[in-house]
Write a structure and sequence with these properties.
The chain is mainly alpha-helical. It is built from six helices and four strands.
Length: 151
């Protein structure tokens, strides 16, 4: 049996996150010593490693809960695992598009900023105006929208 520090070292998951995963139900409640210290077995460490790998791939905690359940169910149909992963891929693709749009908008603002001793700067002006990054119809790069006008 391992204490929480040893389980953290063996799994690559911090003690704080181990307690959090327990509280969320991703990891069964740890056995306790008479003094109340948590104790973890090899199976718990394997589950923590599984969770860590799923987190490294960007799965949400609810999806990780589903994956842990599927992993522990030896009669699971693999189509459920594949469907969950495919959904996550679509979410990652959408996030990648959003990040590229933000990068493109920021690059556009940086190009318009002189970067000299003068105070005027389109980066600051855009942030102050509350413009949002939105797709530009007919253009491959996004545009900054203006905030709704106060009418």
């Amino acid at each position: 049996m391992l204490n929480i520090g040893q389980a953290a070292a063996a799994s690559g998951v911090s003690a704080k996150m181990i307690r959090h995963y327990e509280a969320m139900g991703l990891l069964p409640a740890a056995r306790r010593t008479e003094a109340g210290y948590r104790q973890y077995g090899d199976g718990d460490v394997q589950t923590l490693r599984f969770i860590r790998h799923a987190r490294d791939l960007g799965f949400s905690l609810p999806d990780i809960g589903k994956l842990v359940g599927l992993w522990q169910d030896r009669t699971r149909p693999s189509r459920e695992v594949k469907a969950l992963a495919q959904t996550h891929i679509r979410e990652l693709e959408a996030k990648a598009r959003e990040l590229l749009a933000m990068k493109s908008a920021l690059e556009h603002l940086v190009q318009g900023c002189r970067g000299d001793d003068r105070p005027d700067c389109p980066i600051i002006e855009s942030l102050a105006a509350g413009g949002a990054v939105v797709p530009c119809p007919g253009h491959p790069t996004p545009c900054l929208s203006s905030p709704p006008s106060a009418a």
